[in-house]
Amino acid sequence: MPKVAFVGAGSVEFTKTLVGDLLAFPELHGRLELALHDVDSRRLTAARALADYCNRARGAGARVTETLERRRALEDADYVLFTVQVGGHDATVRDFEIPMRHGIRSTIGDTVGIGGVFRALRTLPVICETARDIADVAPDALLLNYANPMAMLCWGAYESAPIRVVGLCHSVQRTARKLEQILGLEPASLRYRAAGVNHLAFFLELEDGDGEPLAARLRAAVAADPDGLGRTVRAELFRRLDYFVTESSEHAAEYVPWFLAHQNAIDHYRIPIGEYVRRSEENLGAFERTEAALAQEESIPVDVSDEFAPAIVRAIETGNEFRFNGNVRNDALISNLPAGACVEVPCVADGAGVRADAVGELPPELAALDRAYLEVCELTVRAYLEGRRELAYMACALDPGVEGQGVPFARVRAACDELFAAHDELLRT
């Protein structure tokens, strides 16, 4: 019986989606064990109730357990889904408000910028300890990470233990669906090849179902909608680079030095400063509503999503091939990005496991942008693994989105010191 462990199951909406998708496959009915773990007993109770609800709704016959002990959940696991957010909403608010007091803007701030660095410093201890636990009690398990900052956390996990790690994001498939709408294509008809780093990967090839290239058609669509699509960050990046970024405009604005420095650019491209705080507040409300619905035994919709982890589990267990974009260690996959860094590339899952496809060289302008972000990732990971706070300062100061705002190093360092104090001295000193 394949065992799927959820670390961070208290992210209830995410757990509902992943459990619901897993249990939607008839070929897995009666075969799965789901082990739920969280450190928050209230959220863990809600996650267990939700998993039981999905199990009944699907008629899946899965065995469901819950535990506050991580190693117990991990014992003999075949798959580990990591969805942890250390610090929750309060930490997210601090990650925005403190840098803002020092003149540093951000929009999403969960994978890049000062907020991304400090979210990583909070979460790296948990994912690295989880990786070491997996090596001890489930050495053959596949760790599927959903937590952000994706590249930093995956990098830290595979540096900490000799285990298999794949990071999963929904940006590539959802942007592909968006491009189908922009180009007037039938759903799921877009053919593409995308690679780079998480949230800063690019569609290297775009074709319709008949194999016709779509770059010229996309350029025409952008030009034809100057006050709609044309006034977005990713349309502007497409104009400059001739490759469409796989992530939303809100995220993409933070990965390059050109957008957050001036209010006129923020206004023109409609960049929502502080957007993730609003989304985090909405997530809190969603948890409260779900918890109340479970307590009152109300009907809860359980839809099938486009998340990759359930399809990967199905592919490995049945041998049916599944192709997706994953975040993995750069072992000769992208030749002009640093070896050992975490890169996002095409992957395939089947009965043999997960394999990543070698991409070769990225166009040099794309590689240059990705290398700038990977330097921030490496400094952050090393700051935690080596216990060197100075590397965290440098990661924040050299971040392209921060550096582009022209904030002096002294103010960056002051913001970091406030965050270290607010987050209870996260790094060893």
Report on the structure:
The chain is an alpha/beta fold and 429 residues long. The chain has a domain at 3-89 and 109-169: Rossmann fold (3-Layer(aba) Sandwich), CATH 3.40.50.720. It is 49% helix and 15% strand. The chain contains 17 helices and 12 strands. It has helices at residues 12-22, 41-58, 70-74, 88-101, 113-137, 150-160, 171-183, 215-224, 233-241, 249-255, 263-268, 275-295, 308-318, 364-385, 389-398, 400-403, 409-422; strands at residues 3-7, 33-37, 63-67, 79-82, 142-145, 164-167, 191-197, 200-207, 244-245, 322-329, 342-350, 353-356. The protein has a 6-stranded parallel β-sheet with strand order 3-2-1-4-5-6, sandwiched between helices. A 3-stranded antiparallel β-sheet has the order 7-8-9. α1 packs parallel to α2, α4 runs antiparallel to α17 and α14 (364-385) packs antiparallel against α15. It is globular, with a radius of gyration of 21 Å. 50% of the residues are buried. Residues 425-429 have low confidence and may be disordered.
User: What is the third-level CATH name, the topology of the domain at 3-89 and 109-169?
Assistant: Rossmann fold
What Rg do the Cα atoms give? Answer: 21 Å
User: Which word captures the global form?
Assistant: globular
Biggest sheet, spatial arrangement of strands: 3-2-1-4-5-6
Query: What is the β-strand count?
Result: 12
Main sheet summary: 6 strands, parallel
- Counting copies of identical and different chains, the oligomeric state is single chain
CATH architecture of the domain at 3-89 and 109-169: 3-Layer(aba) Sandwich
Q: Please, what is the CATH homologous superfamily of the domain at 3-89 and 109-169?
A: NAD(P)-binding Rossmann-like Domain
Percent range for helical residues? 40-55%
Number of helices: 17
Order of helices and strands: EHEHEHEHHEHEHEEHHEHHHHEEEHHHH
User: Class by helix and strand content?
Assistant: alpha/beta
Ends distance: 45 Å
